[in-house]
Structure formats: C-alpha cells, structure tokens
C-alpha cells in the first residue's frame, strides 16, 4: 500500500514538472521566433558558419550548439534552438542532482532566476557552460559515491565540455578540487585528469596552430580600465541582480547559510566563494562583464534549494519575489519581440527593433562596394546575418581583437575600393547618414584599401620598456609576416607605410610616435628585426600601455602588437 502511494505521489510530482517544462518550451519557441537577432548573437552566428575547434575569444561550443538548429531552420528560431535545448537539459540535470525533490520549490527558484530566463531566449556562451557545469556537479556527486571507469569518463567529459564552453568555467573545476584535497590521493582522480586531457586534444591542437591566440587575447588584449571605486561598487552591487533580479540576494544568503559539510556541498560553497573572490580581484585591472559570474547559477540554485527545503517562511518569500520577477520578466520578454513601450520610456536605450531596415539602408548606401566596419564587431556581424554578406571588422590600435582578425576577410579587401563605416562620428573624414531607426552611419570610400594587420610586432627585450620612464629608449622590435604571401611595404599605391608607437590610458590614446618609414618586402613567415628609438610623450605618473602598429597612409593604424604595460612613477 505504501509503495503505491509513494509511486502515485512521485507521478504527481513528475506531472507538475512536465507541465512546467512544456510551458517553458512553448514560451521559448515563441520568444525565439519573434525576437530579432542581436549583434552579439549575430557574432556567434558567424562562428556557426565557420565551425572550428576554437575561436579567438571563445572556445568552440557556442558554434557547435547553434549550428545544427540553424542548418535545420535558417532563421532566428533555428539559431537559438540549441540554446533552448541546453537550457531545458540544464534544468533537468539540476533536478536530477537534488537528493529530495520538491518541484514547486525548484520551479519558483527557476522562474525567479534571471540566467534561466536568458538561457531560454538568447544565444549566449553561458548557456552551454551552465549545462556543462550542471553535468559536472551531477557526475561529481556520482563519483563521490562510486568512482568506476564509466563515472570517471563522464566526469572528465563534463570537465572538457566546461572548458570548451567558456575558459573561465575552469574555475568551477579548480575550486571543486581545492575543496577536497583527498582527491589527489585517488588513482581515479588522475585517470579523470588523463581523460580530460584526451578530450581536449583537438582544441589544444587548434591553439597551437593559431599560435595560442586565445591565451594571448585573454592575457594581453582585454580592455584594461584600471582600478576605480565605481567599478568595485558596480561589481559588488550587480551580483544579486545578475541572479535575480529579486531572488538573487535571497539565493546568496541561503547558500551562505547552508552549512552542510558533505563533499558536494563543500564544492558548491568553494565555487561560490572562489569565483566571487577571483573576479573581485580582476576588477582591479580589467573591465568586468556582469555575466562572468553567471557560472554561480548552478551552485546557488543547488545550495539555496537545499537550505529552503524545510523552511516554509523562506519558501513564502521566494514565491512572492518570484511572482514579482514574472511580473517584470513577462513584459520585458514581450518587448524583446514587439516594441510596445512608449518612446519616452525607451529614450536612451539601445535599439532592439527594425534592424533589417538598417541593413537595407547600409547596403543601398554602399552602392555595392565591399563593406568594412571599424571597431564594431557586433554591427559588422549583425549586417552579415541580415544580408548574408560576411563583412570585415577592422580593429584599430585603441580597440581589441575579435574573431574577424583570425579570418581571411582583410586579405579579401586588399587593393579594392572599400565602403568603410566608422564606429563614432568623425566630421573631418567621414560623412554622416542617419537611418530610420536613429542609428548613425559614419562612412567614407577608401580607394585601394591596404593593411598589414597580420604582420606581428614584438618587443625583443621587454625590460627595455621600463626605461621609458627616462623619456626615450632604444628598442629592438621583431616583425613577423603571418600572411601566406609576401608583403611589400613599398607597393601600396604610392602611399607611405609607417611603423608607429602608441601610448594608451585605458582606451584613450594619449600619445603617438612615428618611428620608421617601412620600405622593404617580407616573405611569408619571414622575421625582421629593427632598432628604433621610442620616446614617451612626457606622460604624468600612472599606468599606461604601449602598442605598435603598421599604418598605411590615410588608413587608421591597426593592431599589430599586444599591449605592453608601462608604469610611470
């Protein structure tokens, strides 16, 4: 008799959860069908069009997850279909990880948690990351009970999927291991490491073939904003909102008060504390993006759920705050699909609707010329998605590299008449045109476009940079031609080619020096060393960056070197 009642009770639970999933899927399908593709999503669409084992600023999973759906349905729904599947699977895996299942409690947490909503509606690198992380904690829980070969292999696969989804996801693995030092004494732990290394071989080969471009990007080319109390305050204040907007603080408090000391809960707590401390420290140097800490979503849900399980008052407040979240999220998600807010409400907001007309106007304005965007990979990607014409994003010395820099788009423009669109208004060189949606296009036509972006510049002896405090120093620079063809600096349509040194304060150029006139050729793969004298432009005390470029006269200087740190005291 007891067994039948238990079985019936379990069936009712499963029925409630199944209904929730059906509603969640239907809402996601409607949302994804009628929401315009954003610039960021279009950037990832390009990944799906050029599948590879890695990309400059991201691992390959974002391309792998988006490609199949778009092959099946070449529209916004198809592009986001893989994201919705990952979102649903994440929810299912989290539920399977719970020891005691209270589906109503879990559902209230899910509908109140912002990353869960975002994962069902938009293309984000965090979506496959959260699925991989949920699988990791699920298999880690199983591993703690039984470390057989199957469990070890699945645990290793989940670790590999984490690192193939987003690089900083490795923090989850690292803090889990630190939470349980006894793992180092287990043979199965080292077997897990071996399997993980095996699964990561294709991505590692890709990194080697591309001169470890991703590692260099994260080490040297992040936007360095410098330390500021406003950045620190933003980091601390935004955390509850990231996981809320209303239940975020509640999840943090519940997780911090969950004192269960088993290995899984300790791993979850270590992950929360470790990730928060890691990114707190990083805010002293680089620009912080609020979604970076979204990897805490799974630990916060698991620990918060466990703490609130037998606390009716907590559950009552959770329900109230989650209802408030629904009241906020429903019109927000509808607005993503249809612009129904009064214009006075949305003044100053980024434009979300009508971008297809913008693309048509750009296409018409260009007169059929090849198009190139300056320092705006999202705008270039959006245009590519809407028109099917993959266009180049030309990144200058005061910006950062993107996936466009690893592609052959720049090579395809060499010697052509190019329609160049600048990110910001420049009345001295660019004409202005304002589209129906209010987005300005600042453009000019470049005759015989030339660039030497893939000639890399390195400082041979970096300690020489420190001597710049004394105003000037002689440096040895190494130039390497990474094109698969010879380049000739003396053959650019009668224009001059200069080797420049640029000084930056954050994103702001504060000095430029023209070092040399380049007038020779370089064969593919050839290296050339040059002695130059670099003088710093009498800067005030503080932290700066030094970067080098090879500039064709009349065209903005591109990125030819990493940023070298310079501290003047």
Give an overview in words.
- A hairpin with a 5-residue loop joins strand 4 (431-434) and strand 5.
- The protein has 21 helices and 14 strands.
- Helices cover 50% and strands 15% of the residues.
- With 569 residues, the protein is an alpha+beta fold.
- The strands form 4 sheets. A 5-stranded mixed β-sheet has the order 2-1-3-5-4. Strands 10-9-13-14 form a 4-stranded antiparallel β-sheet, with no helix packed on it.
- It is globular and about 75 Å long.
- The protein starts with a helix and ends with a strand.
- The longest helix has 33 residues, at 2-34.
- The relative contact order is 0.09.
Which features characterize this protein?
569 residues, disordered N terminus, 21 helices, four-stranded antiparallel beta sheet, 15% strand, alpha+beta, globular, five-stranded mixed beta sheet
User: What's the rounded overall pLDDT mean?
Assistant: 92
Secondary structure category: alpha+beta
The global form is globular
Number of contiguous helices: 21
For the largest sheet, list the strands in their spatial order. Answer: 2-1-3-5-4
CA gyration radius, whole angstroms: 26 Å
| Secondary structure: helix percent | 40-55%
Largest sheet: number of strands, sense, barrel closure: 5 strands, mixed
The low-pLDDT segments are 1-11
- Tell me the distance between the termini: 81 Å
Number of strands: 14
Beta strand %: 15-25%
